[in-house]
Amino acid sequence: QFFSMAVIPGDGIGPEVTNEALKMIKKVEELHGGMKFYSEHFEWGCDYYLKNGRMMPENGLEILKDFDVILFGAVGAKTVPDYISVWELILPIRQKFQQYVNLRPIKLLRGMESPLRYKNHEDLDFVVIRENTEGEYFNSGGRVHEGTPYELAMQNSVFTRFGMERILNYAFTLAEKRKKKSLTAATKSNAINFTMPFWDELVKEISGNYPGIKTQLYHIDALAAYFVSRPEEFDVVVGSNLFGDILTDLGAAIVGGLGISPSGNINPERAYPSMFEPIHGSAPDIAGKGIANPIASIWSIGLMMDHLGHDHIGKLIVDSIEAVLVDGNIRTPDLGGTATTVEMGDAIISKMAQL
Amino acid sequence: QFFSMAVIPGDGIGPEVTNEALKMIKKVEELHGGMKFYSEHFEWGCDYYLKNGRMMPENGLEILKDFDVILFGAVGAKTVPDYISVWELILPIRQKFQQYVNLRPIKLLRGMESPLRYKNHEDLDFVVIRENTEGEYFNSGGRVHEGTPYELAMQNSVFTRFGMERILNYAFTLAEKRKKKSLTAATKSNAINFTMPFWDELVKEISGNYPGIKTQLYHIDALAAYFVSRPEEFDVVVGSNLFGDILTDLGAAIVGGLGISPSGNINPERAYPSMFEPIHGSAPDIAGKGIANPIASIWSIGLMMDHLGHDHIGKLIVDSIEAVLVDGNIRTPDLGGTATTVEMGDAIISKMAQL
Ligand SMILES: CC(C)[C@H](C(=O)O)[C@@H](O)C(=O)O
Ligand SMILES: CC(C)[C@H](C(=O)O)[C@@H](O)C(=O)O
């Protein structure tokens, strides 16, 4: 079975962690003779911008379009305003390729300790499904009266029935496959009084088609608090682009850190490539030092395998990561150790051969 | 010294906890002969709505306008859509009275244990300053193509130089008075690309006037994670209406729960009344049972005293709450005890007399 993969290492620690993920791809090919990856690298990102005045070539999306999957590192550097680097690279890929599902497991791995005093592995095992193409990430707004005391900026957000139905159906279907049969939707319909009440209506409407699923709407403020106080309640959590963004960084924190949590930007219909990337960003402060934690990037390969229909390999990758964490000897500095990015990657990959 | 106080107990557990706060007001008058409160009660809220088709009388704001302070309970009931109850009561008060500072201490009280495994009292003591009049809480948007597959809703947010300057100046001035001389601003300028870059610019511009303050901008997703992983870093945190809302519920969670955290909606110029209320909501599930925790409401009286220039009484109130928590015998169910709302209130008030 042959898959084509575009690799965009991007900025900061992106290339370092992506390297380890690529070693994992090699290992997968080795262990599972049937799978072959044809991969092509694209050095797009902030350095590319400094030379070319744009984050990727004009026909960048055209180039990516026919790949099965994209492996992404990270985006963002001090040299380019964030709203440019992001709106010219990662967001067009997510939005134009209809990667409307941003899937992010929040799972306390074996060998990891939660910063939450009384929570353990059984308490911390859920998935956040984040809408990934519309909502608050909408390139619409403006500014007026610049430089006067009357200056102001406005920004729009957009919630479509089309966009909400597809993400909610995905989330409910996932909830049906999981144990707790429960779905929690993030809202803020009390204050954000046009878009969010519409979201609530759709959550209720669509929940009618999934009678086996217990559905709960929580305001985002309360929900963020519950991630700390009662995470064991959650199974599938679904939220808008912004709320999903906040909840997943917070989710990463309660399971031990941003260095670990992966994400899939998925087009379930496979009409376009899906993209896999760590939740963490480019972390300029530690870039180039060889000490970034590659687990999030390697685990993203696990999500890629799930997406490609090879769940057993996805599971094997998570098992390998867990086994290394349980051993505990090899840990990057963010996990309290002194291992390098490469040592951590190597440990996981050699563990993989033993399982 | 004479103060006029409007009391709006509101919905759910609002009246129960407000009752205890009022007992505290009485105690303050008793212990500090100089202070006198003239108070008037307004039974506005969802029940009022069911009878009158509105959350408060048409001239409600007119009625409130000349009070020095407002004591607020909670708003929200299953009987009225949240966006109505909120937009017709609490938000008009905050916005029309230019209560642009929503001040929310995030402080682990003595006698309380943080749910964060390795964090103690020194690590958890900061203040969130939330913009309270504009931003994402902007009654502007619309919906089109209802009932068709093409239905969509849009919502605007608005950030003015006027609004941002005043909240940032307040936050920086507060930071100058505190120990760590540091200010953290929440942003999301990478994705929300019109309003948030403007916010960032103003943070940088205004920080120039406060050279003694170390200023840091974090994206809201990372910042939420840092509330869990390194809360000891924070001193004054400033954010937009929505970001401040999310951060303060999360903040309440890391210091032991929503039942404890108070807030002040402050008009620093005192051109209008300021309002004091618990962070928690109306909690319909436990309303009427007499088991709600009154600490947040009582502590709100502490913030009211600070605002009225009686910081020493404010401090005494917090000390009394802490002393009762340290004793540990009297705790409401949310704190693992069996005390009633009234018992908890009484304990704090009688402790106050002993300090
Ligand atoms: C009731 C609701 C509109 C309110 C808010 O979002 O401001 C509440 O959550 C709060 O924090 O005071
Ligand atoms: C880089 C940024 C725009 C992005 C987002 O907000 O989606 C990141 O935080 C993420 O979660 O993938």
Automatic annotation (TrEMBL), chains A, B:
EC number(s) recorded for this UniProt protein: 1.1.1.83
Keyword Membrane included in the entry's annotation: no
PROSITE patterns: IDH_IMDH
GO-annotated molecular function: D-malate dehydrogenase (decarboxylating) (NAD+) activity; magnesium ion binding; NAD binding
InterPro entries named among the record's database cross-references: ICDH/IPMDH, IsoCit/isopropylmalate_DH_CS, IsoPropMal-DH-like_dom, TTC_DH
Catalytic activity: (R)-malate + NAD(+) = pyruvate + CO2 + NADH
Domain Isopropylmalate dehydrogenase-like: 4-348
Listed SUPFAM superfamilies: Isocitrate/Isopropylmalate dehydrogenase-like
A Pfam family of this chain: Iso_dh
Domain of life: Bacteria
Cofactors named for this entry: Mg(2+); Mn(2+)
UniProt keyword annotations, A-Z: Manganese, Metal-binding, NAD, Oxidoreductase
Family: Belongs to the isocitrate and isopropylmalate dehydrogenases family.
NCBIfam families on file: PRK03437.1 (NF002898), PRK08194.1 (NF006048), TTC (TIGR02089)
The protein's name: D-malate dehydrogenase (decarboxylating)
Lineage of source species: Bacteria, Bacillati, Bacillota, Bacilli, Bacillales
